[in-house]
Amino acid sequence: MVFADPGEARARAEQVLGDRPPALHASVAHQVIGIWQRDFGDLRLALTHLRRARTWAARADSADREADVLATLGVALVHAGRTRQGMDALGRGVERGSGHTRARVLFRRAYSWWVLGHHKEALEDVRRAIPVLRQAEDVIWTARALTLRATVHLALGSVERAVADFTAAEALWDTTGQEHDKADAVESRGLAAFRAGDMPAALRLLDEAEERYAKLGTPTFMLNIRRCEVLMAAGLAAEALAEADAAVRALDEIGGQSTRKAELLLAAARAARLAGEPQTAIARAALAVRLFAGQRRTWWETHARLVLIGARHAAGHASGRLVADAAAVAGRLAALGAPAAPEASLLAGRIALDLGRTVEAERHLALAARSRHGGPPLARLTGWAAQALRARAAGSPRGVLEACRRGLDVLDDHRMTLGASELRARATAQGAELAALAQRASLVSGGPRRLLVWSERWRATALSAPPTRPPADRALLSGMTAYREIAARAEEARMEGRPVPALERDQRRLEREIRSRTLHMRGEAPDGGNRFDVGRLLARLGEDTSLVELAVLDGRVQVLLCGRGRVRRFEAGLLAAAETEAEHIQAGLRRLAHPGAQARLPVVEAAGRRLEELLLGPAAAHLGEGPVVIVPPGRLHRVPWALLPSLRERVVSVSPSASSWLRAKETAPPPGGRQVLVRGPGLATGGAEVPELAARYGGATVLEDDDATVPRVLRELDGAGLAHIAAHGAFRADGPMFSSLRMADGPLIVHDFERLDRSPYRIILSCCDTARFASVGADELLGLVTALLPLGTAGVVACSSPVNDAAVVPLMGALHRRLGAGLSLAEALRDARGMLPADAVHRATGWAFSAFGAA
């Protein structure tokens, strides 16, 4: 019962002990309480009860009872870090037990071998146990043994064997009432899905396991560890670090298992390393190494040493000793049969290259490169990274580019199995090094055209295909409706000055549920897609339009100027300096949004001149006279491009990539060209431009007051030719997919837009902060605008900072008048700025808006 209904089992055992039971029954009751405390509570109390259980078993003169208790005690001692005592107890249990009982003890010793990382010994013990358990028709323990064997296979990289055992175990669990074991089986299948490269299935199964554990009221520390592993692979390292640290605190509070604490610290160290926090990673990994060493867990200690060496290298350390340490770890991992061995060899080779030891580096990198031809996607990626570094060390740009191409192809296929745009965007971080290596090789050997191809190869790739949409997922739609209602109530309470902690807790809970369900979605099968073609781009640009793609290599901006049949390269300033200047400009624009800040105008204009020098450099003098398309890196998404002197009087549009601009350019408007005008609540001007626009467009659909609800707005936006939305915008840096526009019934969020079959061909967002994005992955953006671009929108006008609501009204009126004259959004926006009064407030308002796309 302790794994079917843990709480009830503990209560029943305490009841038995309260009734002065005979020795045999007392032994069982103390053992049950010991198991509960071992797995769900205080390990010290567990050891106390299990020792009492052994004493009562000896008094009962039952060898099998004593053997069974010794097995449980042995596992508890191993989890407490007292490895030798634990394995001794398990050994005595094997000797004392017979037949069926002995098989159960062998299973638990196999489990302990697995905890310690002795996989060969674990497989041997479980191999001996399974036939006896089957012969005894012990369904529960047979299922446990199959689950354990599958888990050991996974640790050794044998995914197919693991899946076969998990499947057989699950069929047995279906015939039992062992709810905790069933939850463990679901969790284990999630781990198998992850090892097989199926990230959405892994996330879905781990979430299902968590729900099952929650119903039982049992802690889930092993689940925390596995979820951290999946989150890291999904590019969510910061979330993994937070989860691991929180689990360590919870474990310490209950006096839980020392073995689990060490594993959680290792997960935290890995996450911190990936999150760019090397000092945190060093601290967590060093403590994990000490704990594993004290627990005599060589397998785990070796993995922790690998993370510790990687964190020290990331912190700037490089020495011959560090190379030797990494090589020794690689050798030990290979001897243990650990799939992480190539990762250690890659690290050794990377450090050796930093020290200029090319011969030594080649030896280590050649070992790592063997993994490029088989295994899960991220393992193959490690191999191709090693192969690219080998080629760079050998002075072969062609070899570098081939290895990078093959590696990024692997990651492309992996990304397209992910249905959620957030996961696709974050997964690109895994290929950032390959993309950078390829760009450097292109710069050395291939000229501007090749550099442009490789700049495009890994830029805004999450926008290359629409996210998967689950129209039949009733739970997701229900959750989003509840989220809107709670968010609307919270906003109303804030405006009335009432406390909102309970509503905010509900809102965060619903956000987690919505995000979780979207991350479960699978993507479409990869179809290869359309590769970027420089010739096609130049043909579309013609003789009049220029496209400026800003690539960043080693921290410096490289300007790729495309147009009039050729691609030219110019070197500009440092990206870090440009980011600082852009933030100063944003602060200035916020000030200028309020009357009385006229004196700030020259300061902002001077900053614009400095920013132009940093971002365009000498290329500014070669832009020609025609329209300009700017393709900035993700970290420069908030630059108000119209403020740069050479762009101020031009037709300027912005695009996340040249490929995205091409798609927008070649997108045909929908038949009919319906116009939709939306006015949300609470605007300072009341959305004053909307009545004027309604009169201008005649038959336009106007949604305002109670008609401006999210379901109605989405229904009308789908397939529209032009949409204008006047509503409060809110950007969520902590959760960009929950950035929103306020409607009558609550927020219209990015996840809502992704449910559209086809978003409006042109959309104008006359709201603050609608052009703000979160930069994630290698060079990806998440936000309102980027949600629209893959869904059929060819042009967007949006704002990157807070603006003066009153000044927006004449800007929008002028913009629509110029659209009515047949101009594009970028042309209309340029002209509309020129029609505004010349005061600081109106000029700042005009600069804050940008045109995206090509419509």
Automatic annotation (TrEMBL):
Which InterPro entries does the UniProt entry name for this protein? CHAT_dom (IPR024983), TPR-like_helical_dom_sf (IPR011990), TPR_rpt (IPR019734)
- Domain CHAT stretches: 606-848
Q: Which Pfam families match?
A: CHAT (PF12770)
What is the protein named?
A: CHAT domain-containing tetratricopeptide repeat protein
Gene3D superfamilies, from UniProt? Tetratricopeptide repeat domain (1.25.40.10)
Query: So which domain of life are we looking at?
Result: Bacteria
